[in-house]
Amino acid sequence: IENLEASLEEAVANNRTIENERDQLVDNLQQQLDSARSQLQQEREFLVEQAGDREVEREELLEKIIKQEQIIRKLEKREEETTAEREETVEEVVEAERPVQPEVVEDTVNLQRIQ
To answer: What pTM value is reported for the model?
Structure first.
């Protein structure tokens, strides 16, 4: 009976040791799980923040693109106006340098006589 009692006490002690190890393992796994959840939450918050930042940057870049396109259109319009003015000036210079035709002079003289 003493042997049985000793064996039973030893079995109970082993069982308690196994239970303690199991409890420690469960606690450790629970801590790892909590840590992983916390890390996942932090990463989600970071990604949401980054997405917001990227959206703001995208909107700012889009505004810059629109402004640059407006500037390009204004410059193109100025270039067209400048080109048109140059063409008018060239036509005026060509007209001014064109020799007077004799019949025009004669018509002018006749017109002056009539007046």
So the answer is: 0.50
